[in-house]
Request: fold
Amino acid sequence: MLRYLASRLGQSLLLLLIVSFIGFAVLNLAPGGPLSQFALSPGMTQEQIDKIASQMGLDRPLPVQYLDWFSHLVVGDWGTSYRDGQPVLHVIGSHLFATLLLMGTATVISVSLGSTIGIFSALKRGSTFDYTMTVLAMIALSIPTFWFGLIAIYVFSLSLGWLPAGNMYTVGDGSVLDYLRHLIMPAVVLALVDVAIWSRYMRTSTLNVINQDFVRTARAKGLTRRRVLLKHVVGNSLVPMITLAGLQLPMVLGGALVTETVFTWPGMGRLFLDSLGYSDYPVVMGLLMASALLVLIGNLAADLIVALIDPRIRLD
Amino acid sequence: MTAATTDPAARRPFLKSRALRRFLNHRLALIGLVMVLTLTAACFIGPHLLPYDELYIDLRARFAPPGTGAHIFGTDPLGRDIAARLFHAGQISMAVGFAVMIIATGIGSVVGVVSGYYGGKVSAVLMRIVDAFLSFPSVFLLLALAAFIQPGPVMIALIISATSWMEVARIVEAEVKSLRNQDFVQAAHMLGLSKRWIMFRELLPNAIGPIIVAATLTVARAILLEAYISFLGYGIQPPLPSWGNMLNGAQQYLASAPWLAIVPGLAITIAVTGFNFIGDGLRDAFDSRTQGH
Reply:
C-alpha cells in the first residue's frame, strides 16, 4: 500500500512539474510578454519599462526565472498580484470556496441524477426510455454550458421571476435559503453535461455488473430482484464511477469557469477571467497551477478510494 | 481495440465496407449527417439569398425581432441582420472546427505512433506530456493562450488544436503498441523498410477507425471550444462574426432581445449535436462488437 501510494504521489508530482513547465512556457513565450500592458500606456518610455523589468527580475534568462518562480512556488510563495499587490495564494484562497461550493453541488446533482438514469437505462436496455436517454445525453453534451445558462436565466429569472439571475447572495440577506436560491440555477446548469456523461458510463458499468456470475448467484440463491439490485449491482457499478469522477474534474472546473461568468458567481473562474483582462500574470499562472493541482489531487484521491474499497485491486 | 482493425476487411475500400453499411443503418448518424449538411448548406448558400450583408449597419432597424420584414432572425444592437451574420459565422466556426480536426488529429497521430512504436522511455515521456495536458481544464489553458495572441481564425484554430490532440494520441498509442510485435511488422523490418515507413504506412492505418471517430468528435469539441472562448471575448473578434462572439454581449439584452442569445446558441447546438451523432454512428460502425441497438 505504502509503495503504491509513494509511486502514485511521485507520478503526480512529476505531472505537476510538467504542468508548471507548460504553464510557464505559455505565459512567457507569448508575444509581448508580461510587460506588454505597460507598452500601451502613452507616457511610458522604454527605459522605464526596462527598469520595471529589472526590478521584477523579468530581464533574466527564462530558465533562471522559471527556477526562481518554481522554487518559490514549492514553499508556498506564489508571488503577488500585479493588480492589488496581494499574495496570489491569498487571492485564490478567497475565491476557492465559491467554486468548490458550486462544483460540489453540481457533482451531487450529476452523480445522483446521472447514476439513477444510467441504472434504469441498463435495466431496461433497448427500451424507449433507454433510447430517449441516449439521445438526450448526446444533445446535453452538445449544448454550450454558457448558452444553457443564458436560457435558464431568461426562463427562470426574467420571464418567471422565480430565481435570482446572478451573484452568490443578496446583500443584506445572506441566509441559507438565500444562498440556495442563488446556487440552484448555476449548479444545475453546470451539472447538465456531467449528468449526461454519468448516465452513459453508469449504464455501461451496470450492464457489465449485471452479466457477472455473482449477480446470477445472488438471484439463484433466492434474493429478490430489488435486493440484488440494491446490494450487489448498484454498489459494484459505482466503483468505476469514482475513477470517472476524478477524470471529469478538469471538465467540471472548465465548466465552472463559464458558468461563473454567466451567473456572476464570485469563484476562481471569474477571478481567472478578471486577471486575464488585467494581464495579471502571477494570478493567471497561480490559477493554472491551482486548477491542475486540484485535478491531480482529485485523481489521486479517486484512485486511492477505489483501491481501498475494491478488494479485487491489489496494490503491488 | 476494435476487432475490425486486425481483420483484412479493414483494408477494403471504405465505400464497399461493412462499416459504411452499418453507418447508413444507424438512425442517429443519419439524422446527424442531415443536420450537419443542412447547416453547412445554409451557411454557404444562405448569404447569397439574403438581401442583407453581414456587416451592413442599419441603426433605424436596431433590435428588430425575428420576422421583421426580411430579417428572418431579427437584427442585433447595431441593426445588422442576424441571419446574415449567423451564416457567415457558421462558415468561420465550422472552418475552425475542421481545421482543428486536421491539425489535432495530425499531432495526435504522430505523437501516438511514435510513442507506441518506440515504447520505453520515449513513450513514458510523451505519454506523461499527454497526461499533463489532460490535467489542465482546457478552457483555462485556451484562455491563457488566447489572451496573448492575435486572435484571428487561424490562431484560434491552432490553439484549440494545441488542447485537443491528446485523445487521438492515446488511441493511436494503444493501438500501435498492441501491434508492433506482430508478424507483419517483423516482416517489414526484415524487408529493410524505414522506421518512418513502418510507423506511418504499416502501423498507423490500423488505427484508422478509432481515429476517424475521434476526429469527428474533435470537430464537435472544437466548435464548442471556439464558442466558449469567443463568448468570453478572447476568441474571434468582431466585426468578423462567429457563433461564439455573436453571443458575447447577448446577455445584457436578454430581457429585451432574447433572440440575440437564442438564435446563435441553437446553431451551435445543432452543429455540435450533428457531429456527435455522426461520431456515435461511426463508433458503432467501426466497432464490430456492438451490433445495432
User: Anything to note?
Assistant: Residues 34 and 281 of chain A are 7 Å apart (CA to CA). Chain A has one domain: 88-309. Chain A has a mean pLDDT of 82.
